[in-house]
Write a structure and sequence with these properties.
About 5% of the residues lie in helices and about 45% in strands. The strands form 2 sheets. Strands 1, 4, 5, 6, 7, 8, 9, 10 and 11 form a 9-stranded antiparallel beta sheet that branches. A two-stranded antiparallel sheet has the order 2-3. By secondary structure, the chain is mainly beta.
């Protein structure tokens, strides 16, 4: 029987931490070729095929997040990664865009409020699980697009080096 041991101390953060995302990009997983990682696992380059590029998704303040969570099922351990956001926009081009993104498998780069960037979906990609255009009920209710994508990975999200430039 294999024995898995942890030999690392975990210390608390002695600085500021802010939740949420400040920016978000996606690329089609079928056009994602690879990422190069250094000895610590930090991504130093992302390669897309041909003229493929990353597309930025704008979102409302305090309305975007990512998750990178351990799941356990039937004795298997894997990572469930996800991205969620809300965008207060309901027009013809938003309907067309949501139709396109609904069927895509994607990789995401998420930037948190401290400027750190993370690559999600690098092993298997993420697929859309929620794509709702809604009006809300009352004047102050959210009206627009709610989006979520999820995927199952064999590795945690990867941190991007500050030197990585996204093809946009």
């Amino acid at each position: 029987m294999a024995t898995c041991l942890s030999q690392t101390a975990i210390s608390k953060n002695c600085g500021y931490v802010l939740g949420g995302l400040s920016r978000l990009w996606y690329a089609n997983y079928s056009q994602y070729s690879a990422c190069t990682q250094d000895g610590t696992g930090t991504v130093t380059a992302i390669t897309l095929s041909g003229a493929a590029k990353f597309y930025e998704i704008e979102f409302e303040d305090n309305q975007a997040s990512y998750t990178d969570a351990l799941e356990l099922a039937n004795g298997n351990r894997y990572i469930k990664q996800g991205v969620t956001l809300k965008l207060a926009r309901k027009d013809a081009s938003m309907i067309d865009l949501s139709d396109d993104i609904n069927l895509a498998r994607m990789v995401f780069v998420c930037q948190d409020r401290l400027g750190n960037r993370y690559l999600l979906g690098r092993v298997n990609g993420l697929t859309t699980t929620i794509s709702d255009l809604s009006s809300g009920t009352a004047v102050g209710d959210f009206a627009g697009w709610s989006f979520a994508a999820e995927g199952f990975e064999s590795a945690r999200m990867a941190i991007l080096s500050t030197s990585v430039v996204l093809a946009v």
